[in-house]
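Loading example: each entry is read as two labelled lines plus one structure line.
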Amino acid sequence: MSKSVQAVSQIGQLDGKSRITSLVSMLPKLLMPLVGILLFLAVWNGVSKSIDTSLGQFPGPAQVWQQSIVLVNEHNAQRDKAAAFYERQEVRNAQRVAQDESYVPKIREFTGAPTFFDQIWTSLYTVMVGFFIASIIAVPAGILCGLSKSAYAAMNPLIQIFKPVSPLAWLPLVTMVVSALYVSNDPVFSKSFITSAVTVSLCCLWPTLVNTAVGVSNIDADLVNVSKVLRLTPLKHVQKIVLPASIPMIFTGLRLSLGIGWMVLIAAEMLAQNPGLGKFVWDEFQNGSSESLARIMVAVITIGIIGFMLDRLMLAVQRFASWDKNAVLR
Amino acid sequence: MLSIIANKKRRNPAGSLFLVAALFSVSLLSSVTAVSAQELGWPEKEELKFGFIKLTDMAPLAVAYEKGYFEDEGLYVTLEAQANWKVLLDRVIDGQLDGAHMLAGQPLGATIGYGTQSHIVTAFSMDLNGNGITVSNDVWAEMKKAIPHEDGKPVHPIKADYLKPVVDNYKEAGKPFKMGMVFPVSTHNYELRYWLAAGGVHPGYYAPHKGDTSGQIDAQALLSVTPPPQMPATLEAGTINGYCVGEPWNQQAVFKDIGVPVITDYEIWKNNPEKVFGVSSQWAEENPNTHIRVVKAMIRAAMWLDANNNANRPEAVKMLAKSSYVGADEEVIANSMTGTFEYEKGDKRDIPDFNVFFRHNATYPYYSDAIWYLTQMRRWGQISEPKSDNWYLDTAKNVYRPDIYTKAAQALIKDGLAKASDFPDFASETGFKPPQTEFIDNVTFDGTKPNGYLEQFSIGLKGDTVL
């Protein structure tokens, strides 16, 4: 009895010690990223001073910070203009109805130019739609490839050929096909949105597809045997055995896909002049004002941060969905 | 009014009470614009999207939007920058854009089928002048040696005669001499060709009937297309040795220290027509009232831009410097928009008419302007077959629509927003400017005799010549 009490208290002491040591060992973990960022800022600041472009000096952290504030102010100013626009519109509608009662008044959306934050929203929305379309195609196709050797053999050449294709090669084809097929007098989505989303889908199909196929084909033989013993129907087999077992690999694929999709989208928006962050970057480049480079830098950092956040988001979903809570995910 | 009466027929007797109420409120609320609204008819389409290229001469569109002139006409317009002239034209043709800021040659070229074939019309000329020709610092250093100086500054206008030895040197060294312009049917292409040919440098022919649309047959200077905003960067990269483009991209070269503007188009042809507002003819047929209202709003914008001796220009510059419009630095845009032009760094001269938006009847779509562009298309082989004088006139009438302009102007006069003296005398206007003489090579242009005009040039196709 006393022995066990001693043992418990020892464990308690050990626990206290290890807590301190773990705190100490945590310190560099917390500190080092900060050091890294500060070092980067210092180097950036130093180097930028010595780069003279035809648009003036390369922007340092201070100018970029300043431009990010300008962008916020521009966004707010535009919101005020939008409010005034809606007010004027209501007055005008009322006047028109008074003169011409057959007129059905309608509130039209603000016609001003989209701000930086509007563009962020457009890009996020587009990438999510493209990613979603890709996923609902890639996961079933991947499962099929993983389950059946012959299906895999049939699809493999296509996967290998299309996987390395750059989005920019797809873009002209997608643009033409979308404008030919997507004909509607009152379209719900704009053509440019569909083009961007489809291009994103085409490029983020592959990682999900390949990883799902690998995950499914590598299921533990014991699990497959269990399924055989229980005589599960093919559908139940997929539902109860295949899906849970390959979730980690599927999510690895999805994370890769979303990352690729985000990169592809920015490039597609730049080239096709479709609304979004890519267009913002291109427009600023075309403007060639002395603030353009700093504004582009704000966009670059924003794109990076959003890409990072999307990845963390997928990681969180993966942790939640995965049965193997001990697996190291990074 | 018409719609109210039409509605009455469908309504039950109780509805007539409504009608009385409506008429009563009309009489109460009728303002100046409301009266004209009924005479003109309501717009068929209220939500419009117009395209533009990032150039200062898109100003009438920006002003009509920012000053609420479009909204005064009951139009909700979205303005959208386009990547290049081809994209812009294609989007007007396929209906993604309702109309656009276009090169004067674009509606003509599209209608006669040079490039994409589609019937495009214009009822509004957006501005006069506004372009310049810039050469790289190296080329300028060579040219400058031969140019006479006065008070330490080169004497303007500088003819291409001074460029010819440089081009010859390039040829001897076996290097191509390349220049950029913005589009095959652009004003810039024709102005650059005009200037080069006037100085004895052959700019090359097109031969579309043989499938050659490079425009470099027999050329001493090789011209190619670069979108306006990319001109300075392309010059800096050394891909081209010079270019012809609209503002602010010549002044940008001065500010960035990568090139020197040698001449403005004002000096090549005084008060030459520049951009137009183009719409597809199908759109124009389907939306006649909307079209007139758009032109109305744009005439008001042009008047505002030129009012009181360019007094509003500084405000316009602020507007254009916004990143959603032209987006270049204010000082760069101001350099040319406020009546000056900077050639070499520090050599800033007054050219009050460098950008004309309204005075000199700048907005009226003259047939003779259209015919000048058609003669240049013939001169450089874009029109490969000989054409009769009548063909030139018919084509001009098919594309240029002063009738629509006239309705818009008369509505403005009735609204009290403009005076009759602001416009040409519509009763007697023939659409032909009197023969114009102010070209750099002193050749006279008479719009009624296009073939006779072409006979006067030593370089260029004319008469029955077919390549």
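Chain B touches chain A through 51 residues (CB under 8 Å).
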